[in-house]
């Protein structure tokens, strides 16, 4: 890996390499972008390029010096990654507290031991609570010259304005389907057709696509969900509730975990499963829309089900109706967490997206 090979983030990584080659690296950086888009990957590659002993003229790391090896192994003493403990990044992760491992900011007064910089990466800066955020703020005010901070967050507004004002922001965009497809083929040995489907499902986040490719059971489940999706366009409105039940069953990942249904967390788990399953319906209806607007030869995500896509699209009176169904699915997905009753919510959703008479 290198900064240049972070998938679909040429603008961000070009800016980072320019900082390095021109020796103008801001001491506190904030990487902003959606989950899975490559912020943490880029932060680690940036750290490597910063402390590499034989850095290339491009600003990329050599991948063969001692510092590169230790960072790749996750064992460099001067490069620390901090992920939240549960919901929050907590004060004991910054400053040592009894009963916890040493806080990452305790080492700030001491020069780095193996590299020219001490690099601290906060993987989810949006999870700081008031106490830890205020403590970080003090550290950001006057860090020693050898300290480099990299904070990652989904949006600028997810971090305190006072923290934001002390950081140089680097934006990470959604990666293109082509870039993610290529990444899956080259780095994960995924078949090209499957890679394209996973890339389309990942919403511009290579991290999400890579996680999907690591879970082969996802593919089986997706096929089951697509079988349900194919039936929606042929379902009379009165039978929508039955199809909603088939959809919920297909959304369950394998056998339910022990006691899951009875416990309080059961519905939350079911909602997560349904959320992922709705991604499949969204991709399916996006294909229907593409086919209805661009015709039978249109490029489709589910190219292996082309005939079914085309036939389903014909069941809707117009592309607008398919667009309405897609919008219903997007809204359903967004509001899923707030829906008190997942069963009722899926029945209402299904009734709205079946073709109208
Ligand atoms: Zn190196």
Can you describe this structure?
The protein is α/β, with parallel strands linked by helices and 357 residues long. It folds into 2 domains: 3-171, P-loop containing nucleotide triphosphate hydrolases (Rossmann fold), CATH 3.40.50.300; 215-353, Zinc Finger, Delta Prime, domain 3 (Up-down Bundle). It has helices at residues 10-21, 39-51, 66-72, 91-94, 130-141, 161-164, 177-188, 192-201, 206-213, 217-232, 240-251, 265-294, 306-314, 319-335, 342-353, and strands at 28-32, 79-82, 118-122, 147-153, 168-171. The protein has a 5-stranded parallel β-sheet, with helices on one face. Helix 14 (319-335) runs antiparallel to helix 15 (342-353). The longest helix is centred in the C-terminal third of the chain and has 30 residues, at 265-294. The chain is elongated.
| Main sheet specs | 5 strands, parallel
CATH architecture term of the largest domain: 3-Layer(aba) Sandwich
Q: H/E element string?
A: HEHHEHEHEHEHHHHHHHHH
Beta content: 5-15%
Spell out which ligands are present: zinc ion
| Count, helices | 15
CATH class of the largest domain, anyone? Alpha Beta
Summed up, the domain count is 2
Please give the number of β-strands.
5
Short characterization:
The chain is an alpha/beta fold. It is built from 15 helices and 5 strands. It folds into 2 domains: 3-171, 3-Layer(aba) Sandwich (Rossmann fold); 215-353, Up-down Bundle (Zinc Finger, Delta Prime, domain 3).
Write the layout of secondary structure elements.
Layout lengths: L9 H12 L6 E5 L6 H13 L14 H7 L6 E4 L8 H4 L23 E5 L7 H12 L5 E7 L7 H4 L3 E4 L5 H12 L3 H10 L4 H8 L3 H16 L7 H12 L13 H30 L11 H9 L4 H17 L6 H12 L4
Parallel strand pairs: 1-4, 1-5, 2-3, 3-4
The structure holds zinc ion.
């Amino acid at each position: 890996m290198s900064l240049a090979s972070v998938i679909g983030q040429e603008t961000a990584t070009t800016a980072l390499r320019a900082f390095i080659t021109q020796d103008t690296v801001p001491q506190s950086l904030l990487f902003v972008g959606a989950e899975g888009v490559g912020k943490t990957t880029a932060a680690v590659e940036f750290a490597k390029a910063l402390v590499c002993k034989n850095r290339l003229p491009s600003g990329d790391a050599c991948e063969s010096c001692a510092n590169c090896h230790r960072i790749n192994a996750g064992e460099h003493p001067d490069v620390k990654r901090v992920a939240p403990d549960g919901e929050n990044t907590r004060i004991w992760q910054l400053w040592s507290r009894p009963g916890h491992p040493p806080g990452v900011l305790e080492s700030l007064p001491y020069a780095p031991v193996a590299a020219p910089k001490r690099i601290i990466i906060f993987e989810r800066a949006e999870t700081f609570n008031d106490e830890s955020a205020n403590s970080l703020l003090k550290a950001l005010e006057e860090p020693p010259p050898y300290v480099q901070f990299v904070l990652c967050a989904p949006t600028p507004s997810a971090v305190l304005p006072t923290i934001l004002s002390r950081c140089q922001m680097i934006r990470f965009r959604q990666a293109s389907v082509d870039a993610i497809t290529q990444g899956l083929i080259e780095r994960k040995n995924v078949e090209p057709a499957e890679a394209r489907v996973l890339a389309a499902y990942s919403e511009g986040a290579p991290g999400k696509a890579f996680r999907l490719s690591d879970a082969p059971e996802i593919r089986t489940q997706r096929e089951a969900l697509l079988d349900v999706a194919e039936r929606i366009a042929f379902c009379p409105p009165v039978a929508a509730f039955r199809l909603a039940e088939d959809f919920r069953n297909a959304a369950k990942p394998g056998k339910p975990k022990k006691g899951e249904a009875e416990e309080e967390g059961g519905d939350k788990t079911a909602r997560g499963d349904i959320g992922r399953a709705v991604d499949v319906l969204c991709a399916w209806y996006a294909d229907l829309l593409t086919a209805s607007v661009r015709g039978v030869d249109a490029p489709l995500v589910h190219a292996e089900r082309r005939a079914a896509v085309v036939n389903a699209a014909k069941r809707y009176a117009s592309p607008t109706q398919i667009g309405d169904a897609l919008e219903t699915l997007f809204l359903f997905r967004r509001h899923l967490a707030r829906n008190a009753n997942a069963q009722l919510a899926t029945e209402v959703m299904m009734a709205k997206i079946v073709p109208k008479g």
